[in-house]
Amino acid sequence: MNAGESTDTVAVRVPGKINLELLVGPLREDGYHELSTIFQAVSVYDRVTVRPADEWSVHVIGPYADRVPTDGSNIALVAAKALGRRRPRHVPHDPVRIDIEKTIPVAGGMAGGSADAAATLLACRELWAMDHVDNETLAQIAAGIGSDVPFLLSGGTAIGSGRGEHITPVLGRGELHWVLWAGEGLALSTPNVYAECDRLRAESGAEPPVPQPSEELMTALRRMDPDDVGPALRNDLQDAAVSLEPLLAEVMRTGVELGARAALVSGSGPTVAFLTGSQAEAIDLSVGLAANGPAGDIVRAVGPVPGAQVVQHVRTPPSPPPTPPRSSPPLGPVTG
Ligand SMILES: C[C@@](CO)(OP(=O)(O)O)[C@H](O)COP(=O)(O)OP(=O)(O)OC[C@H]1O[C@@H](n2ccc(N)nc2=O)[C@H](O)[C@@H]1O
Ligand SMILES: Nc1ncnc2c1ncn2[C@@H]1O[C@H](COP(=O)(O)OP(=O)(O)O)[C@@H](O)[C@H]1O
User: Fold this and answer.
1) Whole-angstrom distance, CA of residue 286 vs CA of residue 28
2) Which CATH superfamily is domain 176-303 in?
3) Residue 17 among the catalytic residues
């Protein structure tokens, strides 16, 4: 950082997501699967802060911090550099320091890394005053970083098509009350779960059709009535996640026995999302799971919530350049 540059700090709050529907179509030639998914952003948040620095770095705190890389593979750093490359040529490509307060479970199927990437894009656009990058362009940059990243910019409830990066908002009223179970020390790698899904399909000889959002869920989401939403939830990656982590079947069974309206693996897992009918039901279920379920973190959340949002911009005026030493006369005795 050079003298005369601002030391502004921008903080962004970003939610995690669950997939209310994840329909996995055929494997494409580029190695991705054609998807039709319905994302919902839920009230479990990371906070990402960026500030100018002498070199690129990322620092993570929070209960899952030790599971997040802090080298160049951190997807938040990848996002900052990708946006930095869009700065006009005459503007120096300034490094930033990124601080992540991590609450979204890591490698849990809640897109925590993608959330941090989306938050970093928004924070750096603000920090670098890149007004020429509109939301559509930001979403395109986001898609280049990961399939889930564009959704975390917009949040709410939305259809994801293509490989999940094309986002269409779903309008609906009301909110859903979720209980999330994240198994202690459990993690599933997204590519491994997709590969397991392909393996199971090859075994059964099932050819997936090109996926389309289901009418049943789209209708249920208009009023977000848990009685209608519950039976319409579906995740094509669930069998693959359970095949790699059989404990998930027991977790889902226990939650339903304890009164959940429905249970499903979130995305590629291993977080399990339980749908309840109200805040009171969610409290009862989380207490029951904590007492009777397999060990794990249990969190209540509501959805939908908005995507990444700037929550703080501390503007610090540029420090004045150091004044050159003056050739002043030697100090003599002070006379009155
Ligand atoms: C499964 C989902 C459901 O929302 O998320 P998670 O539950 O893991 O958070 C997503 O499809 C994950 O999206 P994201 O984590 O952004 O994946 P990417 O970085 O784009 O891709 C990682 C890898 O996942 C596989 N992949 C991803 C998306 C897709 N439509 N088909 C795939 O086969 C590919 O093997 C790819 O190399
Ligand atoms: N900022 C980040 N937060 C979490 N994980 C990250 C981050 N950057 C890179 N990763 C890597 O991405 C992997 C997937 O993380 P995450 O996005 O939390 O899971 P998922 O893809 O299941 O939603 C982690 O195991 C970790 O190695």
Assistant:
1) 40
2) GHMP kinase, C-terminal domain (3.30.70.890)
3) yes
Which residue among 104, 114, 147, 264 has the greatest number of ligand 1 atoms within 8 angstroms of its CB, and so is best to mutate?
Answer: 147
Instruction: Give the pLDDT score at 149.
Output: 98
The pLDDT of 24-38, averaged and rounded, is 97
* 45's tokens: 């948040």
CATH of domain 9-171: 3.30.230.10
Per the annotation, where are the binding residues for ATP? 105-115
Contact yes or no for 96/50 (Cβ under 8 A)? yes
**What is the token pair recorded at 222?**
């208009």
**What one-letter code names the amino acid at 23?**
L
At residue 187's C-alpha, the angle toward residues 181 and 192, to 5°, is 125
Q: What is the ipTM of this complex?
A: 0.98
**What residue segments make up the domains of the chain, in order of their start?**
9-171, 176-303
CB 25 within 8 A of CB 211: yes
Q: What is the pTM of this model?
A: 0.93
Ligand closest to CA 192: 1
The confidence band for 313, taking pLDDT boundaries of 50, 70 and 90, is: very high
